[in-house]
Amino acid sequence: MSALRIGFASVYAWRPHVEHMMFLARLVQDADQAAVFLACDGDMPACYTRELRDVRPDWMECLLCRAGGVRSFTGTGLSSIGGLASDRNLSGLARAREWASSSASTLGRFESPADYESPAFRVMRDRLAPGAQRAYSAARAWIGLERLDAVCVFNGRMDATRAIFEAARDAGIRAVSFERSWFGDGLQILPDENCLGLHAVHAMVGEWSSRPLTLHQALHSAGRIASRLTRTNTTEWRAYNTQARRGTWPAQDGSRRILLLPGSLNEIWGDPEWQSSWSEATAAYDAIIDHLKLSRYDVVLRCHPNWGERIGKNDGRLPERYYTDWARARGVHVIASRDTVSTMDLIAQCDAVVLANGSAALEAAAMGKQVIATAPSIYQEAGFRTDVSHPDKLQSLRLQVDATATEQAALQRQLRRLALRFCYTMTNRLPQYVAHVRALSSWQYRYPPGADPQRILEIIRSGRLQADDAAFADNEESENEVLQRMEAGDWSALIPGPQDDLSSAPRVNRRWLLRPVDFVRRKMPVGDR
Fold this sequence. Notes:
- It is a single chain.
- The protein is globular.
- The protein contains 18 helices and 14 strands.
- The strands form three sheets. The chain has a six-stranded mixed β-sheet, with helices on both faces.
- Helix content is 40%, strand content 11%.
- The chain has two domains: 5-180 and 431-464 and 490-495 and 503-521, no CATH class; 237-401, 3-Layer(aba) Sandwich (Rossmann fold).
């Protein structure tokens, strides 16, 4: 079998993504395959990083990005966007605007249909499009110059990263996206899909949703869920509501308790795989309320705590205003994003949650709560959601709380079981190299030895993912033991004790003279914070 030539690109120097890229590249090199790199040396007229914060001069932002980028890890096999871009391989402006749309959406934190028709969205998209064009041009030239068989690119969704991903596809070679995993350990590696891809996720989640967990697996999964419920998780990219106060259900005059948990549309907007069939999120809420004959006292809307935080230079006023205006027009009780009432307490006291694709579905299902979902999601094949992602599915919607006590108990246990299996798939099956890419925090990593280079090479050659952990139990006995502990509600007892001591495990280091970069960067915000 001939050796592969693989290109690696991580345009944005956010921690820990360049480090992850170098981990994969060194695996490839350990297997005697060629690894080369595409760098940005301040080569784009505008980019996501500069638009995100916009507090430093452009030259300083680019200098800091270069200091943390691929050149600080290696001095060989490098090409630059500026050295390769030309009018020869320039993409059409319409395509470049499409690639920049996702970045513009996230930067502006847009939410409503009116937001996406606004001049603010168009201005942001059009400002980013030339940089995406330039990245595409350089990537096409790079692929030809280096005779690449595949390209591995961080994210593959945002402006320049999307352009590099599309350049590989247009060149007829494998395009692979990589990103940190949801819970931190291992890497999300998706062949032929950007970071929002759902094909491999659906296949993996669907395959493993029917297979019981071993006791070790079930305890691991329950521990991950418990860390979210108790807000002690430290390895996810963001933790919300960490200073939550205990709270009671705020609407006392209703006969039902339906909790609306809207999320942010901006990171998935425009991706057809995530597209709901509802005209907009609030149209789904209206239809559900009318179908179930709910009064305004039966419903509470909890604004996402994310909206009360600044991400870069923007806050979440647009999504908060969109949902708050709808709720007030309906007379629905609203809990503001900055309110510190515990979202977990609200879920524990509700009859059902309604969301699009938010991660709170995991905690809700783990508590045995009905999860009514209005849009596609990573858990749509997990089996624990009530699917109303299309108006035609609304007629079959029934509230679990209306079933008999015996039926409710069985439904609650099944929801918990499926939540356990889904969580384990997302922590230990879908991510690759889980035992060898270990998170100490959201951005600090260690890399225990023994990672098999053939795993990434097989993904590149075949375009298919295999479960990182393919073990499972013969029966549900071990799951039942853990489910009993979950049903008792003592989540703190399910949090695992001290884990492996990773302090002496290897790091992925920068070049010797540039290692002080890490000391300086530890005092700076991480990524989009």
